[in-house]
Structures are given as structure tokens and as C-alpha cells.
Amino acid sequence: MAAVVGLLGACGARVPPYFPAAQVGPGNGSGGSGPGSASGPGAQAAGTPTTLSSLGIGSNGGGTGGGGGQAAQSGSGAASGATPAAVAALGPQTFNLDPAAEAAYCPASSANRASDVGVTPTTINVGNVSGLSGLLSNNFNQGPEAVTALFAAVNNAGGICGRKLNLSVEDDGQDASHNAADIQDLIPKSLAFVGSTSDADNGGVPAMQQAGIPDLGQAINFARGQSPNYFTAGTFGAQTKGGQDYIYDTLAAGLKANGKLPTKMAFLAFNIPISSLAARQFVKVFQQTGSQDCYEDENVSPASPNLTSDVLTMQQRGCDGVFTTMDVTGNDKLLDAMYNQGYHPTYAGTTLDGYTPAQISTAGQQQAQGFQVFLNFIPFNESQPAVNLYQSQLRTFEPGKQPSAFGIEAWASAEMFLYALIKSGPNPTRASIRSILGGLGVWDTRGAMAPSNETTKQPGNCLVDLQVKGNDFVRVWPSSGFFCSNNLVAVPAS
Questions:
Q1: What pTM value is reported for the model?
Q2: How far apart are CA 143 and CA 328, in angstroms?
Q3: What pLDDT shows up at residue 73?
Q4: Is the pLDDT of residue 250 over 50?
Q5: What pLDDT does residue 54 have?
Q6: Closest C-alpha to 176, from 301, 246, 302, 274
Q7: Can you tell me the distance from the alpha carbon of 253 to that of 485, in angstroms, rounded to the nearest whole number?
Q8: For the chain, how big is the Rg over CA atoms in Å?
Q9: Cα separations (Å) of 43 from 374, 442, 446?
Q10: pLDDT band, very low/low/confident/very high, at 47 (cuts 50, 70, 90)
Q11: pLDDT higher for 45 or 244?
Q12: Which of 3, 391, 477, 493 is nearest to 233 (CA)?
């Protein structure tokens, strides 16, 4: 399963003061009513009162070395001198995300040995290949920043089995051939790849498969998402059945369920393959849900001075909705042209890539009002313990860096890696990491992320819709938790 639509952020792809509704186990969320109720594996049940204990989270926060955020902790107290039996009994819903707890699950031991590539008695070396430079700027750096912050927090607490976690990051320049070369360079030095984020992430897939090295992160391209040794705490992306690709219709279904589905939709994309493909996929989803395709421009250059001609055409054709798979700068040009031309469709939105203060500040607060994004995680301004922990670690160990969609997806995947590392015991191997992740089942990073199933490779099918109000993004629907849809739509393949 790929995350083609997840780059530029997708509803199901493997991209405001509320507390998420009470967590339920595998099966359908109960307690919700109306279009905002959640369903699916590990979904949040809308309308259910939430307490820390209902989430299995203790109230003794703050284990990140002074970051000030609330730590996401299990209520079992297993973090204090955990026995091998206690670690063996750990599951995704009882795993304590507090770095001190993670370090305590497996203390330093004289039994530590060089158990596999990248593992020494005192260190664990992990690789990351991301698009730090290239056409789409200030996007893909967010993944390695988040993993760096998490590893620093854990190292500050003593490491895993006493080992220090080292992250080696290489820049592929958003070029597939460079991605392949960087992957080849890091394979002989790394136990796994964690948090790699690039629109050229298909380049190194054959080498990773041949080496059997685990790869955890957010896939942008189809090839990476389909790899048998790929795992993600984000969403998976397109499913393939009988040679046909499918994605969930969650965004369009949510708009329809909440009485906000436009009758005529326009779609804009950069003339970059991953952006234009994502736009074509969303065209199919909205058509299937009942919207007419009134206009498409999938050939927008990132260097275009403005998008006035696109806006004028959308106005002339009576488009009452517009969706973009562009980045912050492309969306800025769209919002500016809409504002200048007095074009106010009932819905204007983009992918999770637009979920950043820069989207508002770049476009201007007046221009950005009402612009919508959808997320596969609980928003940053809602008091969710795991989301708080990510932000706290970023502030503490990567000061000045902004929380972001790609960042929290990489961070959640890194937490999944730590889970597998701890479950592997004092001498982890690539095979043990793959085996544990392959049997993981539902993972939602303690309620922070839309749930997906690593064992069945079932993509996440849940999201939250937000819009710009004032100088922030606020929740539109559902009223709490996630909106989920189980409807799959056949879409164009890469």
C-alpha cells in the first residue's frame, strides 16, 4: 500500500480545544451518533466522555527532560524495572511513550552484543533518507527533525537497553537516483530506516527489499508503500486488488455527511508527478461521491507567478469547490488570486501539507480565512497526550522547529520502531523488528493517529477536517475524535 495521496497528504493513504473521545478496541466505535461517529479498527468513538484513565494514560506527565508537555503514559506502572514477562505482555495500547519508561523497559545489560548490522553493545544506528533540498522546500526536513527529537529524548533518559540511538540523515535532493544511492550507502551501517520523508522515496526500495531492512515512515510513492518490509504509523495509501488501486473516500464522504459536499469541484496540482497523480485520484473520489468535475489544472508550475487565470476559469464555470495537492507556496498563490477576484467557493481545501502556520502567514490572514485541511491525527491545539509529547520533545530537543504533519507521522513511526526494539530484547535484529511489526495489529500511537493495521496492511480510513479561523486552524468535523469511512474508490495508478 502506498501513500501517493499522503504526500501531499491523503485521506487514506499510507498528511482548536478538544480532547479525543474515548478509545475503543478493534471493531466499530460505539457511543457516537450522526455523521461524526467513528468506526473501524481502534477508532475514536464520538460523543463519549473522555478521561485520562479511559485512555489508559497516567496523570504523571512530563518525562521529556524539561519540555513541559504531558507525557503519554500507560496506567499500568510497567515502566519501573519492567520484567521480561512484562515486556512480553506489552501491546500497542499499553506501551508507555514516556522516554523514561521506554528506557526502563530494557535497562543496560552486560549481555548486549553486536547482534546485527548497525547494532553494537552501546549504540543502535538508524538511517534516514529525506528530501531536504529540491523543488518542494521546507516539507521533508520535518521527518528527520521529529525522529532526532525523539531519539534525543530517549537517549537523555538512558537509551534502549542502555544503547544510544544514532540517526544518520542523508539528503536525496528529491531525486530517485540519489535516493537509491543514499539508501545503498546507509544499508551497511543501519539496523533500520526510520522517518525517511521524500517524494523520491521509490528509488531505494529494491535495495531495501534485497537487504531485508525494516523501513518505517510515511511512504510518498506507491513502490515504497507496497514493500513487504515497509511499516508506518501514518496511513498506508492506495490498496491494490487485482491490479487496481483503491483509496478511501473519507474526505468527500465526510463533507457529504456534514452537508458540505460541493456540487462542482475544481482540482489544482503541480506539474510534478506525485502531485498530479494525487489530484487525479481525488477527482475520482469526489466524482464517485456525487460532485461534478468542473475544472482541472494538473500542470501548475511551482514557479508560476500567480493563479489568476485558474481562478477566473473556476468562477466562470460556477465551481463551488476547489481542492489542491500543491504545497504552501502554491496554495498561497491560489488564495491570493481568490481573494483578489472575490471568488468565495463554499469549500476550498488542501492536503495535510497545508497544516502549518506558514500557510496562514504566507497567504495572509484575510486571504487564508476558511481554507481547509484534513489530518490523519488529532490537531496540535487539542489536548491529546501523545500529540502533546511530540510537540514537547520537538521544543526541547529541536528548538525553533515547528510541529508539522510530516513530523508527527515520522515521530509516530519512530515510536513504533522503539516498541519493536524493546520487544526484541537486548539483542535486536532486522528479522526480529520485521517479525514484531508484522504481528503488531492495530496501531494508533495511543490515540494520536488514525488507526491502521500493520498485520493486515489495512490503511487508515479516518480523518479530522479543519479550517483557518483567525490565526489558527480549528476543527470543523467531526466534533471530536475522527470521522471514518470504509468506502473504497478505484483510482488511477502511478
A1: 0.85
A2: 17
A3: 42
A4: yes
A5: 27
A6: 274
A7: 7
A8: 21
A9: 17, 10, 11
A10: very low
A11: 244
A12: 3
Give the pLDDT of residue 66: 32
**Rounded (10°) CA dihedral 328, 391, 23, 232:** 60
Q: Report d(CA 194, CA 204) in Å as an integer.
A: 14
Residue whose entry in the numeric block shows the C-alpha cell 510497567:
78
Place of cell 466522555: 49
- CA dist 419 and 95 (Å) reads 7
| Per-residue pLDDT tens over the stretch 293-349 | 999 999 999 999 999 999 999 999 999 999 999 999 999 999 999 999 999 999 999
DSSP assignment of 396-439, as one string?
HHSTTPPP-HHHHHHHHHHHHHHHHHHHT-SS--HHHHHHHHHT
Q: Does the pLDDT at position 278 exceed 60?
A: yes
Q: List the beta strands (DSSP E) in 9-71.
A: none
Angle at 456 between CA 450 and CA 457, to 5 degrees: 55
> Residue 217: in which H helix or E strand, if any?
strand 215-217
The burial of 315, by beta-carbon neighbours within 10 Å (0-12 exposed, 13-18 middle, 19 or more buried), is given as middle
- Cα–Cα distances (Å) from 291 to 255, 267, 322, 405, 489, in that order, read 11, 12, 11, 27, 14
Which of 148, 492, 64 minimizes the C-alpha distance to 298?
492
Q: What confidence category does residue 124 fall into, taking pLDDT thresholds of 50, 70 and 90?
A: very high
Length of the chain: 494
Distance CA 391, CA 90 (A): 25
Alpha-carbon gap, residue 462 to 449, rounded angstroms: 9
Q: What is the DSSP letter of 53?
A: G
How many other C-beta atoms are found inside a 10 Å radius of the C-beta of residue 120?
Answer: 14
